[in-house]
Amino acid sequence: MQRPRTKLDRLLDLMASRQLTGLIVYSNGSCDVLSPSYLHYLSGVRPLGPNSAALISKAGAALLVEPPWDSGRVLAKSSIKDVRGTGNFVQDLIAIMRALRLAGPVGIVGQRQMTEAIYSELEKAADLKPAEALFDELSVEKDDKEIDLARKAGVIVDAGFSAFLEHSRVGIRECELLAHVEYAMRRAGADEIFNLMSAGNHNLAMHAPTDRRLMPGDTVIGEISAACEGQFVQVCRTVFLGKPGPVIIDKYDMLRKSLGESLRQVRAGAPASAISVAMNRVISDAGYRKYCYPPFMRARGHGFGPASTLPGTAIDEETKTMLTRNQVVVIHPNQYLPETGYIACGETFLVTDDGFKRLSESESKLYVREV
Amino acid sequence: MLTLQPTLKRGRDVWDPIHLPPQEFEGRLQRIRNEMRNRGIDLLFLYGHGMNEYGNPSYVSNVVNKMPRGALVICPRQGEPVLIVEGFPRDLPEAKSTTWIGDVRSCGDISKECVRYLREKGFLSSTIGLAGINPFMPYDQFRSMRAALKGCRLVDCEQMVRDLRAVKSERECDQIRRASRIVRKGLESLTEMPLQKTSERELEAILDLAARLEGAEDVRIMVANPRQPAWAFRPTENFMPSEAGAIIVSMAVAFERYWAEAIRTYRVDSSSLLYYSGNSIGAVYEKMLGGMRPENGIDHFCRHAHNEIEESRLYSLPVYGLGNGIGLALQEYPLLEGGENAVLKKAMCFAVRLAAKDPEIGSVMIGDTIILSEGGVEVTTR
């Protein structure tokens, strides 16, 4: 019986197709929601840092970990079984490169996290070629395990939003509100959390929480994101404290309509830009064309995957890629409007052959808390 | 202690200008300028990157990186400093609300924005001091900046800035005391929690919530199972401490930029956690702290500590060292290790730690944040 093909097998094929003799996948231990954690995606282990790298060639694969005391944890979790701890990262990295015969053109991934001291030494040892595109190709279509993790992350963001709604009350400080949200998400199993919010009668943008206490008439907006073993999912929600006026009800309906129209475009093989075009059309038709671009919004959506936005940090009208089956995308007509301030609306979807599946259950609507 | 880095600094982000008024930062800037004058430096770059290494720019600006991005303060010897932060334009109002610096700029690539500023101000043939650029700046930005600064004389100022940051002002010590209080309360609260069916991750969630309700900006928890022969600190898992029989917890909290850290060992007793200090580690630890006196060399202190450990016949575990400076970073200079040339000074702050084998639970570890005073150490986390 044939062994199922692993990520590493597929990666070796992609390397061969680009005439790369080897690949170095680096991490400085940071986890950036806007930039993929390639090493985490490949090895299945979240790096602790400050330096870790996987080295891959036909001759084998090794994972070098600094500090050395973390190598036991990494070995227990990693899909790469040759794990070596180091207290001298650059020297040991180059020694492994030689042992694995990484000489000619060597692909390098995560190099923008490298300092000059590391990159300049690698450059002396091999002919380095940027190879992050390999991972875009490798990771765009989620496998069954990744889809399960995304669903689990969807349950976690729903738990986070339930807490956001429950604790959005007059008198609570922003930082206390997010503390409760995060607690709910951790208890639901979040490995990593990316939550931003704002509260006020005219929000300009989301931000880290402050000491501001929520007041009657506040619009409370939240971007609630969780990762489960590296797979991120997000919901964007708006809660009004008190009786909302007709203006915010009307504007929020417009955002919901724009979300609905953009979802009609979603299916495998459709252009990703159609999401943005459809969304902007609804908002522009209502007279807000000038507000459809930064700084009044950031992005109409983005891909979500291995602790990052891979394979695309922003979906806009110029995006060239096509949507792919089993791709995970966030779609959010988050928008500043002059009458309401910034309001948040959106969620994460799994792209299917004939449409999409929602990855969270809470509804994208204007929520109201009586005061 | 090294920890996982979060993807976002999610806690309370405020500037308290009553406790840290602009005069505090102006005083720091003045000390920097005195050093610049002594070294003939026209401009100083204070660079930091990510959520662990924001200390250099934060030292004079109070701004903190909330994502894995760069921040740079350019201090001219005369005139106003400028703060450049990487991020979206929408983040600019937030940065401006937490700093006394008037000229705050947002950009996508700090090296390009920096060069634009130098050109704008006519500084492209200056003597420039660098702090944080070599150790933290991504290589592509480093190269782009270095190429643009070809006409400048570059001076390494790492040690100069480390030395300035290492000795804290009274206000900085108070920030560390406030962070320490949150750590102390958190670690104490573990002894009051019912433990049955509570996993490590649930314990972390409870500690995190309590710390954030107290105003923590960042909370980092690491744990270890001392009964395992090759134990090491790691992020929490779904393991049950009640089944492991013992647990070592390292808790670090940042409060308004300043960190405190402590480590405690707990033994499981029926349905709760009890502090565990073993037979002799506590006494050795106290003697070690007793050796931390201003004007002692760090190398001398380390030899003193190792002598105490040897004389007590404690089988110490050196993996995590004796400690390091703490303040605007969880790990900063000076390090408490043999060969370190620095001298201990009043108002230096350290995270200190000691680990040893233990016949009952395998290993035991203790750690605290301390402030050096003329009379010795003030342990702020107990």
Give an account of the 3D structure.
- The complex is a heterodimer of chains A (about 375) and B (about 375).
- Chain A is built from ten helices and 16 strands.
- Chain A is an alpha/beta fold.
- Chain A has a six-stranded mixed beta sheet, with helices on both faces. A four-stranded mixed beta sheet of chain A has the order 7-8-9-16. Chain A has a four-stranded antiparallel beta sheet with strand order 10-11-14-15.
- In chain A, α5 links the parallel β5 (about 105-110) and β6.
- In chain A, α4 packs parallel to α5 and α9 (about 245-265) runs antiparallel to α10.
- The termini of chain A are far apart.
- The relative contact order of chain A is 0.13.
- The mean pLDDT of chain A is about 95.
- By secondary structure, chain B is α+β, with helices and mostly antiparallel strands.
- Helix content of chain B is about 35%, strand content about 25%.
- Chain B has a six-stranded mixed beta sheet with strand order 4-3-2-1-5-6, with helices on both faces.
- Chain B is globular.
- The interface between A and B is large, with 55 and 50 residues.
Q: Which sheet architecture does the biggest sheet of chain A show?
A: 6 strands, mixed
The strands making up the biggest β-sheet of chain A line up spatially as 4-3-2-1-5-6
Oligomer: heterodimer
Could you give the order of the helices and strands of chain A? HEHEEHEHEHEHHHEEEHHEEEEEEE
* Largest interface in this structure: A-B, 55 and 50 residues
N-end to C-end Cα span of chain B? 18 Å
Name the overall outline of chain B. Answer: globular
* First and last CA, distance of chain A: 64 Å
Strand content of chain B: 25-35%
Question: Given the structure, what is the number of helices of chain A?
Answer: 10
Mean pLDDT of chain A: 93
Residue share in helices of chain A?
25-40%
Order of helices and strands of chain B: HEHEEHEHEHHEHHHEHEEEHHEEEEE
Q: What is the CA-atom radius of gyration of chain B, in angstroms?
A: 22 Å
With strands numbered from the N-terminus, the spatial order across the biggest sheet of chain B is 4-3-2-1-5-6
Mind describing the biggest β-sheet of chain B? 6 strands, mixed
